[in-house]
Automatic annotation (TrEMBL):
GO terms for biological process: iron ion transport. It is a multi-pass membrane protein. One of its GO terms (cellular component) is cell outer membrane. This is TonB-dependent receptor. Residues 270-664 form the TonB-dependent receptor-like beta-barrel domain. Belongs to the TonB-dependent receptor family. Its main location: membrane. It is found in: Cell outer membrane. Residues 1-32 form the signal peptide.
Length: 706
C-alpha cells in the first residue's frame, strides 16, 4: 500500500486508503494479492467534489481508474480512455479532441478553448495540442461527465478529465519497466520514491517511448505515425507542521513524431490519379511529397499548499505552464504538391486557485473557491500551395476570473440538498494578420469579454445504506472567442443539464451498479467546419442531448472480476443553419448512439510459483458522423475492439512478466474523416481523407518493483 505524505495521522490513514480503494475498481494483479480472495468489492474513495468521499456517495457521474488498471486494460494514452468509459469519444487529429456525451470541439488556436477540460494534479492544461500525452506515473484518473464549474477553478461545459500523479512514499520504493512490441516498440520507464528528510518525501519518474511508423511512404521510402516521447516528473512533498503540507511538482515532455497520418479513400476522386498521383496499394501504404511533423515541448511547475485549520482546510494551487508546438501536414495526402499546412503555437499560462473547504461531520458541508487564469500565446497557420502562400500570425491574451461555491445540507440522515453557484468572467485581447504571398490583405485587433452566472441545484436520497438516488440541474458556460485563420468572432455557448441517477452496492458488496440518465439543452452551441484549411466556428441556435449510462462491476467468484459499461446517446441539433442549409434534426458529430464494453479478469494462484492474472476487454462503438451535415461519406463505421493481457508474478511480487495484445482482431476503423483536396488544389467534398485507429499491436512487458 502506498503511503502519501499528508497532514495528520488520521488524514494519512484516509489518503493511504485511496490506493487500495481505487484498486478494487478493476482488481489489478497487485491488488488481488492484498484483498482476501473471498472478500467483496472494496469501497472506492474519490475527490471529485474536492473532499474524500466514497464513490457511491458522490451524486455525480464519474468514472475512476488506477494506474495499475490502466496497464491491465492496455490504456497508454488519453485516446485509449474512450473504449473503457461510457459516453466518451476521443480523436487524435493534431490534438486531443475529447467529446463527452456528444459535446466537444475540433477548433484549435490560442483564442479558443476546449469543451472538455483536462487537469493534471489540479492544474488546468489550457492547450488541447498538449493534452494528448502518454500516461505515466499515474495514481488514478477521474472522468467527470457533465458541466463542471461550482467545484472546479476552470469551468467546463462537457466534463473534466482529472489525472492525478503518484505521490512520494514513506519508505524507499521504485519500479523499472520495459516494453517491447511489434513495430519496434520500445518503452523504458523508471520511478524512485522515498524520504529525503524527516518530513520530506521525493519521487522522480522518467519515461522514454519510441515506435516505428505504421504507414510506409512508397514514393519516398519513409515511415509515418511513429512514436517518440521523452517525459519526466519530479515531486517534492513536505510537512513543516502536522497541519501544513506543501507539494512542489515539475514536469516536462518532448515529442518528436510524424503525427497521425490521413489516407485517401479513393485516388480517382478529384482527378488526383489522372493528375499523376501515385496510388498506394496496401492498407498501410501512402505516398506524400512532404514529411509530416508533430513536435511538442511542454513543461510546467506547480505548488499545492494545504493548511488544515481544524474547522476548515485552505488549499492553494499555483502553476506556471509553457508549451511550444510545431506541426506540418501534407494536406492533400498525395505525392503531388497541391497543399501543405504548417501550424506553430506558443503558450504561457499562469493559474491560481484557492479553495476553502469545511471539515467535520456536521449537517452542513461547503466549499468556496476562486480562480484566476492569465494565458499569453501566439500561433501561426500557414497554407502553402504552388502559387499561393497564406500565412496568418496571431497573438492573444486571455484573462479569466471566477468565484464559485457549493453547499450540501443534510435535512435528515437520508436526505441531502445541494446548492452551488459560480460567476465566470473572461476577456480575450486578440490580434491577427492575413498575409498572401507576403502581402497583407487583412487583419485586426478585436477584443471582447463575457460573463455568466452558472448555478447548480441537487438532491440525493439514501433508499438504504447501499442504494442512493440523486438528481441535479446544472448550468454550464463556455466563453466565446476568435477563430484561427481569419479572426472571426463566435459567441459563448450555454447549457442546462438535467441528470438523475442511482448508485448501488448490493449482494454483500459483490455487485456495484451505477445508472444515470440526462438531458441537455444547449444554446449557441459552437460548431466547427473546415473550409479550404481554415477552421470556421459558428453557433448553432439550439441543440438537445439525452442519454442513459450504466457502469457495472461484479465479483461473482472469489478470484473473478467482471465489469461492463453501457451508453445510449441521442444528440441532435434543434435549430442550426450552416452555409444556407438547414441542419436541424441532424446528429452531432462524434456522438455514437450506442457504446458497450465488457471486461473480465481472473487471478489463478500457482502455489509457490506465484500467480497468473488473465484479463480480456471487449468494446463496441456505434457508427458516428464526423460532419454536422451528416453526409454518409463522412460517417464512421461501427468499431469492435478486443484487448488481452496475461501477467505472471512470483510469490514475492517483485517482478511481473506480461504478454499483451491490443486490437487483436486487427480492426480497421476510422477515428475521423474530412474533405480532402482535388487536383486543382481546392477542397473537394468527393475526396475523403480518413484518419484510422491503431492496428493490431502486441508485445511483452517486464516490470521490477523494489
Amino acid at each position: 500500500m502506498t503511503y502519501i505524505y499528508k497532514l495528520s495521522s488520521g488524514t494519512n490513514a484516509r489518503i493511504a486508503g485511496i490506493s487500495l480503494a481505487f484498486s478494487a475498481l478493476f482488481a489489478s494483479p497487485a491488488d488481488a494479492q492484498q484483498a482476501p480472495p473471498d472478500s467483496g468489492l472494496t469501497d472506492i474513495i474519490v475527490t471529485a467534489e474536492k473532499r474524500e468521499e466514497n464513490l457511491q456517495s458522490v451524486p455525480i457521474s464519474v468514472t475512476a481508474m488506477t494506474g495499475e488498471s490502466l496497464t491491465a486494460t492496455g490504456i497508454s494514452n488519453v485516446e485509449d480512455l474512450q473504449f473503457f468509459a461510457p459516453g466518451v469519444s476521443i480523436t487524435n487529429d493534431a490534438m486531443a479532441i475529447i467529446n463527452i456525451r456528444g459535446i466537444g470541439t475540433t477548433a484549435f488556436g490560442i483564442a479558443t478553448d476546449p469543451s472538455t477540460t483536462v487537469h493534471y494534479d489540479g492544474v488546468y492544461i489550457p492547450r488541447p495540442t498538449t493534452s494528448y500525452q502518454d500516461l505515466f506515473d499515474v495514481e488514478r484518473i477521474e472522468i467527470l461527465r457533465g458541466p463542471q464549474g461550482v467545484l472546479f477553478g476552470r469551468n467546463s461545459a462537457a466534463g473534466t478529465l482529472n489525472i492525478i500523479s503518484k505521490m512520494p512514499t514513506k519508505a524507499l520504493s521504485g519500479a523499472i519497466g520495459l516494453t517491447l512490441g511489434n513495430y519496434a516498440k520500445r518503452a523504458l520507464s523508471g520511478t524512485i520514491a522515498g524520504p529525503v528528510g524527516d518530513r520530506i518525501g521525493m519521487s522522480v519518474t522518467v519515461l522514454a517511448n519510441s515506435r516505428d511508423g505504421i504507414y510506409r511512404d512508397v514514393a519516398r521510402n519513409r515511415r509515418y505515425q511513429d512514436q517518440g516521447n521523452l517525459a519526466g516528473r519530479v515531486t517534492l512533498a513536505f510537512n513543516p507542521t502536522d497541519d501544513l503540507e506543501i507539494v512542489l511538482r515539475a514536469d516536462a515532455s518532448q515529442d518528436r513524431e510524424t503525427g497521425s497520418t490521413s489516407k485517401l479513400t479513393s485516388y480517382a476522386s478529384g482527378g488526383l490519379a489522372a493528375a499523376g498521383a501515385t496510388v498506394p496499394r496496401g492498407a498501410f501504404d501512402i505516398a506524400l511529397d512532404a514529411d509530416p511533423r508533430y513536435d511538442v515541448d511542454a513543461w510546467g511547475v506547480s505548488s499545492t499548499i494545504t493548511w488544515n485549520n481544524g474547522p476548515v482546510t485552505l488549499k492553494s494551487i499555483t502553476a506556471l505552464r509553457k508549451s511550444n508546438v510545431s506541426e506540418a501536414f501534407d494536406t492533400d495526402a498525395t505525392d503531388l504538391f497541391l497543399r501543405h499546412q504548417e501550424y506553430f503555437e506558443r503558450s504561457r499560462s499562469i493559474t491560481q486557485e484557492l479553495q476553502l473547504v469545511s471539515n467535520g461531520e456536521g449537517a452542513l458541508q461547503w466549499i468556496l473557491g476562486a480562480f484566476y487564469l492569465n494565458e499569453k500565446g501566439s500561433d501561426e497557420l500557414r497554407i502553402i500551395q504552388p502559387n499561393r502562400r497564406r500565412f496568418t500570425p496571431e497573438t492573444n491574451t486571455t484573462n479569466a476570473v471566477a468565484v464559485f461555491g457549493q453547499a450540501n445540507y443534510a435535512v435528515t440522515d437520508r436526505l441531502r440538498l445541494i446548492g452551488g453557484l459560480r460567476y465566470s468572467w473572461e476577456e480575450r485581447d486578440f490580434s491577427y494578420r492575413i498575409l498572401v504571398n507576403n502581402a497583407q490583405i487583412g487583419g485586426g485587433q478585436p477584443k471582447d469579454s463575457w460573463g455568466a452566472w452558472t448555478p447548480k441545484f441537487g438532491i440525493d436520497y439514501d433508499i438504504t445504506k447501499d442504494i442512493m438516488l440523486y438528481a441535479a440541474a446544472t448550468r454550464g458556460f463556455k466563453s466565446g472567442g476568435f477563430q484561427l485563420g481569419d479572426g472571426q468572432p463566435f459567441l459563448p455557448e450555454y447549457i442546462w443539464s438535467y441528470e438523475a441517477g442511482l448508485k448501488s452496492t448490493v449482494l454483500d458488496k459483490r455487485l456495484r451498479a451505477n445508472f444515470s440518465a440526462f438531458y441537455y439543452n444547449f444554446t449557441n452551441l459552437q460548431v466547427v467546419e473546415y473550409i479550404n484549411g481554415v477552421a470556421t466556428t459558428t453557433n448553432a441556435g439550439k441543440a438537445r442531448i439525452k442519454g442513459f449510462e450504466a457502469e457495472i462491476l461484479a465479483r461473482p467468484a472469489p478470484r473473478l472480476t467482471l465489469n461492463s459499461t453501457l451508453a445510449w446517446l441521442d444528440a441532435r441539433y434543434d435549430v442550426y443553419f450552416s452555409q444556407g442549409a438547414d441542419l436541424s434534426g441532424n446528429r452531432l458529430p462524434n456522438a455514437p448512439k450506442w457504446n458497450v464494453t465488457y471486461g473480465a479478469e481472473y487471478k489463478a494462484p500457482l502455489g509457490e510459483v506465484g500467480s497468473l492474472t488473465l484479463r480480456a476487454d471487449f468494446s463496441w462503438r456505434d457508427r458516428v458522423y464526423f460532419k454536422a451535415n451528416n453526409n454518409p461519406a463522412f460517417e464512421g463505421e461501427t468499431v469492435t475492439l478486443l484487448n488481452a493481457r496475461a501477467a505472471w508474478r512470483p510469490i514475492d511480487e517483485r517482478w511481473e512478466i506480461a504478454l499483451y495484445g491490443r486490437n487483436l482482431t486487427n480492426e480497421r476503423y476510422p477515428t475521423y474523416k474530412t474533405a480532402g483536396v482535388g487536383a486543382t488544389g481546392v477542397t473537394n467534398q468527393t475526396v475523403i481523407k480518413t484518419l484510422y485507429g491503431e492496428p493490431q499491436q502486441y508485445g511483452v512487458q517486464l516490470r521490477h518493483f523494489f
